[in-house]
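re the bet — no i am not wrong, look at it urself. input seq straight from the record:
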Amino acid sequence: MNAKQFKEFMEMMSRKSKHKRVDTYATKFKRLLNHVNSNNCLPDAYIVRMFLGGLKDMNAILVTIVAPKSLSEAVAAARRVEADNFYGQHNAEVAKQVRVESKLSDLKKRIDKMALNYAALTAKLRMPL
């Protein structure tokens, strides 16, 4: 590994959270790793730590919990975390929509009840004494 390759690798690692998707980051990481580690002298634990360092903070924590032993395990775990995040956000949005619809339904019932009360009150007021 020459100084230029090492510098490129370190620059990539310092660009934390620039990648929106794990697959994009993993592809770029592997490409740079091939340049930097052409003679396979870096230990797997070090490569995994470097990969985790480029993930978004919460994703890195969740992948670390899995304790991946290789880069492929770390990438697979990061993909699972990313998918869980996506579906978790989607489910939260659906739950929020259901709550809004429920509140709107309750509000409609209250308005209907007020309209009936108003009609009954005006009918009583129109009655001769």
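see?? The CA atoms of residues 3 and 82 lie 33 Å apart. told u. also The chain has five helices and no strands. so pay up
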